[in-house]
Amino acid sequence: MPTPRYPSAMTLGGKVAVVAGATRGAGRGIARALGEAGAIVYCTGRSSREAAVDPKRPETIEETAELVTAAGGTGVAVRVDHTEEPEVARLFERVRADHGKLDILINDIWGGDALTEWGKPFWEVDVRQGFTTMERAIHTHIITSRHGVPLMLDGDGGLVVELTDGAFYGYRGQLFYDLCKMSVIRLAYAMSVELADRPITAVAVTPGFLRSEAVLDHFGVAEQNWRDAIEKDPHFEHSETPLLVGRVIAALAADPGVHRHAGGVLTCWDLARHYDVRDADGRQPHWDEHLDAAIEEIIDRASPTADDILLLTMRKPQLDFDDARAAQRARIEAFLKRHAE
Q1: Which of 69, 73, 189, 287 has the most crowded CB, counting CB atoms within 10 A?
Q2: Are residues 259 and 323 in the same domain?
Q3: Residue 123 shares a structural domain with residue 26
Q4: Would you call 43 helix, strand, or coil by DSSP?
Q5: Tens digit of pLDDT for each residue in 120-179?
Q6: Are 103 and 251 within one domain?
Q7: Based on the domain organization, do 166 and 46 belong to the same domain?
Q8: How many domains, the chain?
Q9: Residue 43: how many other CB atoms lie within 10 Å
Q10: What is the helix (H) or strand (E) element at residue 178, kind and residue range?
Q11: Are 185 and 164 in contact (CB under 8 A)?
């Protein structure tokens, strides 16, 4: 079966998609890319022009829907709080009434940035904040799939994508963050088991170093001059726009052999190479290759910086359960022990 290449004009023409969490970041990039491929995209979230949830952020679902339409698709903005099951049920009732089917479901709701207490051990964190994060980042995905997948079952099937952070099974540095990002990977796998005899494929997908609106703001740059931030963080050179993960997901959705990926956790960088997908500027960053090379360069250096030590300290537990990188993990552990003396 031939591998579809991207971009291919209107490869998703006539397909109906719901992007839950389309206000900004990866969700907006995915919605826009599905629009590039000709899809009808329902862009959902809580931040609308009528009622902004986060006054610090200007992005809205209406703006995302307009970007979808401008890209060549049909964008439909629907304000939905995905923690409220009746609102989610009404969303899919509307999609059924409008089109009678659903082909693509993207679960990208997060909402935990302001709640994640980085640098605190689990015995010092605010449990209520952690539980709110789980409600936003896990419960919403379950509720949305619970009401979206039946619409797929009544049609010709489709693709369900869980957005996560990292394809590894080690630790992500903060208890509730780790639970959320690992849980959606497990959700994709669990759904794939129950959908094994159905024409629906569930997968998890991780972007690389994402140049979201918030990340650009953090570095004090805009997309037009993002390279100015490389001086602050050399790793930023290997970042990507949210459009790239959107384009690889559009390619997945157009692939007639997508079911071979069922239950897996896929990386944006590997999919980009497989489907020959490129970012808005024509680049094809590969985060794992960059990170592996950067770590080896640090280990070979005689005098690491504080940032080097921090990176290795974070990376070591990420490599737990990764047999292919066991040697690298051992080298990191020995290096950290040596420089702690």
Answers
A1: 73
A2: no
A3: yes
A4: strand
A5: 999 999 999 999 999 999 999 999 999 999 999 998 989 999 999 999 999 999 999 999
A6: yes
A7: yes
A8: 2
A9: 34
A10: helix 175-194
A11: yes
Sign of CA dihedral 198, 199, 200, 202: positive
**% of the chain at pLDDT higher than 70:** 96
State how far the alpha carbon of 33 is from the alpha carbons of 65, 102, 324, in Å: 12, 17, 33
As a three-state string, the secondary structure of 248-267 is HHHHHHHCCCHHHHCCCEEE
Mean pLDDT of 323-337: 96
User: Tens of pLDDT along 209-218?
Assistant: 999 999 999 9
Distance CA 49, CA 93 (A): 23
Average pLDDT, the chain: 95
The tokens describing 126, both together, are 């605010």
Angle at 114 between CA 108 and CA 117, to 5 degrees: 110
> Which residue type, as a one-letter code, is found at position 4?
P
Which tokens in the block code for residue 251? 């390619």
Whether the bond into 7 is cis, omega within 30 of 0: yes
Quick one: which of 179, 148, 180 has its CA closest to 161?
Answer: 148
Which strand (E) or helix (H) includes residue 144? helix 140-153
Report how far apart the first and last C-alpha atoms of the chain are (Å, whole number).
Answer: 56
pLDDT at 341: 64
List the domain range (segments joined by +) for residue 31: 16-285
Structure tokens at 134: 């789980």
Give the phi and the psi of residue 310 in degrees, each rounded to 5: -60, -45
Residues 187, 162: contact at Cβ < 8 Å? yes
Residue 7 has pLDDT above 80, yes or no: no
Burial environment of residue 336 by CB neighbours within 10 A (0 to 12, 13 to 18, 19 or more): middle
Residue 3 lies in a domain: no
**Is residue 20 within 8 Å of residue 42, measured between CB atoms?**
no
